[in-house]
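Structure first, sequence second, as always.
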């Protein structure tokens, strides 16, 4: 048989095969049980007649043993009376081997005492036999001992035709087969319903996967509304498609933003190069200025490319595989010292406050230095002269994390811009209070995005709080280093 290719067909075929085997086994067992029970019922019915007749034969059989020949006549009369009542064929076998039958009874074989049920009755056993008589009829045989006060006076053999029993068995089997076919049809209907119920959502998922492969992500799989595994699979598939759509949108936005950010310095470079080629190269007043501007734009491009490479390595996990215990408090002090010259030029005071003895965090030292430099650069850049930047480092022992808070007294961030400050290439409105050598300096818009990527790469979290004119606070939470990790 050719194996069905569709899931629905395979489910139906498997249900059909299992149902067929199960129904066949049940039918065979039930039929065997019914046949045996009908035969046992016929045997018990035959024995009941046998016990009734044997009780009447006790006295004549006892007289026969005492030598009274009239007993044969009495035994024959009793057998004839029961034969007229429609009872089974009755034969009496005396201990001396004489066989006594009623008129009309099929002539018994000469070796009747050798039959299994007769031999069993003489031996005190309850045995039965099914065989054909001299006329070819299938008969059921039983033998009942004729005894009085444990003294055996003979054996009564009974024979009943099996035809009525076979007819009754046939009628019962017909009913059984009808019931079995009805159950099989019901089970088949349930199997079809289950196969359809299981195959339909999978077919929808297959169709959705095909659309997904074609890049069509805006066709969610309709939920069945149940709470089973299929419904959870549909939810998971829709969530995967949504996240993939979000990732693609982010990538498109990233490419668009990167192109825009690269276009500006490249255009500036091209214009200055063309100006130099057109004669400005020989102008001692203009040439040095254009060369300096070209160097500035090249530095800006180099920094942007390096930031993008670092961001890609951090988010891919390649750069965060090696982790070591880092003292974040000591690293903050070193970052402040390294930033002191730039802060002094900007007229901004930078302080580090260490609360207690914070435990080490699990990270890469170069990444944490980059994180601190980016946060300090932003804080100083947006803090006016005579402002202050405070770095606080402490432990959150309840969550086994170290908390780093960088708070400035700068211009603050408008509420509509605050949710976007960690986005790549995002730059809000240019601040009006840039000081010292940082005045007019434009960043790439990747600083806080790199901070967020570093924090998330090490299993931490970062958040920002700010209001216009009230400064900004960036809070970073990083997990404590553990020897068991």
């Amino acid at each position: 048989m050719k194996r069905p290719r569709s899931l629905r067909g395979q489910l139906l075929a498997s249900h059909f095969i299992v149902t067929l085997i199960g129904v066949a086994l049940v039918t065979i067992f039930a039929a065997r049980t019914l046949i045996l029970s009908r035969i046992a019922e016929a045997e018990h019915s035959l024995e009941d007649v046998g016990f009734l007749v044997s009780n009447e034969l006790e006295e004549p059989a006892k007289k026969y043993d005492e030598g009274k020949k009239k007993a044969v006549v009495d035994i024959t009369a009793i057998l004839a009376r029961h034969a007229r009542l429609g009872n089974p064929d009755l034969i009496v076998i005396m201990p001396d081997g004489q066989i006594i039958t009623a008129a009309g009874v099929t002539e018994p074989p000469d070796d009747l005492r050798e039959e299994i049920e007769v031999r069993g009755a003489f031996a005190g056993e309850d045995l039965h036999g099914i065989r054909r008589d001299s006329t070819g009829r299938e008969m059921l045989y039983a033998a009942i001992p004729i005894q009085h006060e444990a003294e055996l006076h003979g054996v009564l053999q009974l024979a009943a035709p099996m035809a009525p029993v076979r007819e009754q068995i046939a009628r019962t089997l017909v009913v059984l087969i009808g019931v079995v076919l009805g159950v099989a049809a019901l089970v088949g209907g349930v199997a079809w319903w289950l196969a359809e119920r299981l195959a339909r959502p999978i077919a929808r998922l297959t169709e959705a996967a095909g659309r997904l492969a074609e890049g069509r992500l805006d066709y969610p799989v309709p939920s069945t509304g149940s709470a089973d595994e299929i419904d959870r699979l549909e939810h998971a598939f829709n969530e995967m498609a949504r996240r993939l759509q979000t990732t693609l949108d982010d990538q498109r936005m990233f490419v668009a933003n990167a192109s825009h950010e690269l276009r500006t310095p490249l255009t500036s470079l091209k214009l200055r190069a063309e100006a130099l080629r057109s004669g400005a190269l020989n102008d001692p007043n203009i040439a040095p200025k254009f060369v300096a501007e070209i160097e500035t734009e090249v530095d800006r491009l180099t920094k942007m490319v390096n930031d993008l490479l670092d961001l890609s390595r951090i988010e891919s996990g390649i750069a965060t595989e090696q982790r070591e215990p880092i003292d974040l408090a000591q690293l903050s002090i070193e970052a402040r010292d390294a930033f002191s010259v730039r802060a002094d030029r900007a007229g901004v005071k930078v302080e580090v406050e260490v609360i207690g003895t914070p435990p080490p965090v699990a990270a890469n030292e170069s990444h944490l230095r980059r994180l601190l430099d980016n946060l300090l650069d932003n804080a100083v850049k947006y803090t006016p002269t005579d402002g202050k930047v405070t770095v606080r480092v402490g432990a959150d022992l309840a969550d086994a994390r170290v908390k780093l808070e960088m708070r400035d007294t700068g211009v603050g961030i408008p509420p509509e811009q605050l949710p976007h400050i960690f986005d790549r290439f995002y730059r809000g409105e240019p601040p009006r209070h840039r000081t010292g050598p940082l005045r007019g300096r434009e960043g790439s818009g990747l600083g806080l995005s790199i901070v967020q990527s570093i924090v998330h790469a090490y299993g931490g979290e970062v958040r920002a709080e700010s209001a216009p004119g009230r400064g900004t606070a960036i809070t970073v939470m990083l997990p404590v280093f553990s020897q068991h990790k």
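Margin note: Residues 464 and 474 are 5 Å apart (CA to CA).
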